[in-house]
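job 3f2a | input accepted
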Amino acid sequence: MSQARRTSERGVRASVAVAASALLLTLALVFGLIALPLRSHTETASSGIPKPDRVHFSAKDPVATKEPETTDRFADGTPDFLRLDDPADRDAFRRWFTLLTEVKAAQPTEKLPAEINDCAGLIRFAYREALRTHDADWMAQQSLQIAPAIVSVEKYQYPFTPLGAGLWRVHSGIFQPSDVAGGAFAQFADAKTLKNLNMHFISKDLHLAQPGDVLFYRQLQQNSPYHSMIFIGRSQLQPELTEPLVIYHTGAIGRSKGEIRVLRISDLMNFPASRWRPLAGNSNFLGVYRWNILREAN
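job 3f2a | predicted structure (298 res):
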């Protein structure tokens, strides 16, 4: 690495450290001394349709008020009863999904939930928790001292869905009513399965990414070739960081368990190893993907 690059990276780290220190008091009031470990680039990255009727499930009484739809209007394997048709629900999911990702990025690695040990684990955690009822009990479990000013998704709350706790499709095919109890959905899915069966392709143009979308890569030289990064957009924890961010878990690095890292989009675009740059001409970059539950007619 050149002396100029080392100097640049030290400058970035120093400026971020100053910004993080200035925020400690504010963040203590909100999330208990949370400060994102923002990184500069380094090569250690392992690295006109009517809305259906709403179906409500209560965390206290997990019995649906009506039978859920058994349709799959986009033929992508995701049942319409899981889709967040209300724009307010889609916004709530995106905000919780990205906020929880930021919160976990700010925690020490040793305090992370055991399941967050690779990129897919981080995605599964943030997705599932974004769909919960964010009440006082949940806040305590997540060590959040003050509730963020974000409403919870209204249509349903995990795990009280027609699928129970098994949110991720693991068998290909259009949704059929028999899938509810037929093993087509599970509580675990790896990065490839999340991409292929639970999301849909948007573009290889990063300008079209929205908060909560996921960037996928396929790196054949790695033991686990599929890798993902969560597109955060602008930080909710540190709004003074105006540049969009991505957050990802490296997965294991040698004997290390790996860690969650935060990158500015500009650093990712200029990553030293070009195979990680999210550019249309990079064959390792598979593109921007969006959750099927957020899918819209257009």
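job 3f2a | The beta strands are 38-39, 168-169, 185-186, 199-203, 214-218, 226-233, 245-249, 260-264, 285-291.
job 3f2a | closed
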